[in-house]
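Need tokens for this chain, all 329 residues.
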Amino acid sequence: MKTMYSTFRYLLLVAFFASVSTVKAQLPNEKFGKPSSMEWDFVGWGDAVSADAIVLCKTMKVTYQLTDQVSNYNQSDSELGSDNITDFSKNLIDNSSILVRYEFRLRTKILKPEGAKHANIDITYYNVEDKKIISADEITDMKVRVFTKNEKGKVEKRNVDVNSFETERVDGNYMVMHVNVPDVQPGSIIEYQYNITSARPTFLYDWVFQECIPTLHTKCDIDIPAMLQFNMNVPINMLIKSNVEVGQLAYDTNRPDLKRGKYCPTNHYTIVGDYILPEGMQMEHNQNNAGGEKSDVAEKIANFTSQISNPNVTLPEYMPAGSTHLKIK
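Here are the structure tokens for all 329 residues:
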């Protein structure tokens, strides 16, 4: 009898820890297309429970596409790297040889009726107004989905017509796409998914960790060819964790005679932020040493920024410092 009880108790403990692991695996959830069960029940943490809406997950993945031209130029003595690139200003590496691919994902949950406005976002992208210059970042594969639960608890998905989004020129170099999502209600989860292709290898969009509403999880993943030297300014904050390691990137080639230089070394940056409150949001739950309540506000968290540092690269005058592509209204 005692043995059976011990076995039963052991199975209960296993089941408990398994369920805890499952819960932790569901938040944060970086997989898009289907909100997790935890996300449906999640209403925030700490002081974030009073918010109108929250960002459940926001990610940016950046990779470079390198063509044969770059590969051939980098094959000197079968070695790759920045030492083999002597002068960027001679158009040896141009718009046709290096492209930057961005993959953006955002999942937001509406908590209160007044939070419906946070379902709308603005996407700023590079687009030169001068007709003599053909250069623009291209937005592709855009999908916007709204998930709701009906009275029976069944999840219903609605696709938003992306062709209805309006664009507006910000200045001579940038456009903004206004993404407006109608008919959202408390409990709705909205997913935004789009890619940007850019022909500006020496420029990277900044990444914003701190939005106007609480952010549960945000991640920036950038894989940069070692031949492009950047200065990376990562926020110094206990809520932000950063890592850099050596990676590799395959050249985009179909040439069978290209036996050398099929891969180039990269600097792979991963910066993650969790449980970030908006700047100035009241934090009433802290306790001071005397045991009384202490009112405090969330501090400002700097964005993740980058700037080309290769001395052979001259940035155009129209390249603004600190350009951010995504803004939650």
